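Tutorial handout. Part one gives the primary structure; part two gives the three-dimensional structure as tokens.
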Amino acid sequence: MKIDEFMLELGSRTNSKETMRAYRQDLERFERFLKSEGIRINQVKRSTMVKYLAYLEALRGRTTSERLSPATKNRRLTIVSEYFDWLQRDSDKTISNPVALMRRPTVQNENPSPVDDVDLSKLVTGLQNLRDKALILIFVYSGLRLFELYKLNINSISIRVRQVDGQKEYYGHGRILGKGSKERNFIIGPKAVEALKAYLLARQSQDANAPLFLSSRKTRLSCRSMQHLLAEACRRLGLNHIHVHQLRHTFATRNVNAGMSMEVLKELLGHEQLTATQRYFKVDAKRIQREYYAAMEYVSQSSDL
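Part two.
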């Protein structure tokens, strides 16, 4: 496969390192499959791609759920399809795209799957490693995506003090280059800041430009390692598998139930469209009761009825 040549062209169309990384990993995975089957790229047919989907299921790995999601299958087929489109142009159409006529898995706008408070408390309490605790709490209190958190350096976050009823609360503020290479502000809540300060104090780094989270080899902690440490913590603590994206769902759901507006949540999550944010607005029973009682208190004070 001409992966390097394809990546050069892709690099002229996007400056997203995350997109480049995902394309290369998926294409290298497809190349390994073809080699294992003894199939050359010009021999790939629709039936080959059906077999490839079964191959992906078999290699889903330790940090994934029981089955690959339709969205993941679609993404991997899309990347291979783009490669074949490029190859078709490069070969003067002597190679066709076997993915083009495939029926893709149906992708539904799945409901958010936040981590419930009991499991979240058990997870955070059970994390003894200061780095891992800070990492998980930043996910929960910032709503950052996995690759966004991966890119943070120590100086990506500035600490600000807020006075609340005479008490000081410390919040983290920063700016991140998110999905679609669009910048946005993010905020990290006090509990996450407290954990982060403890981690950085123990680490004693003098370099403000250093990666925020380091591996045991003193290099930037990879996205895969972040997923792995969460999976291992769940296994050790007897919790059902939690995916890092569920922590983002948890951030969104908790803020909705605390009364945050859709527009503000959209900005914090970095969504392009409000429809992506809207799915979180299924208000829980506790909030319904709380707001009803507050409304009734106001009504009773302002009306004789």
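Part three, for discussion. DSSP finds 13 helices and three strands in the chain. The CA atoms of residues 162 and 169 lie 5 Å apart.
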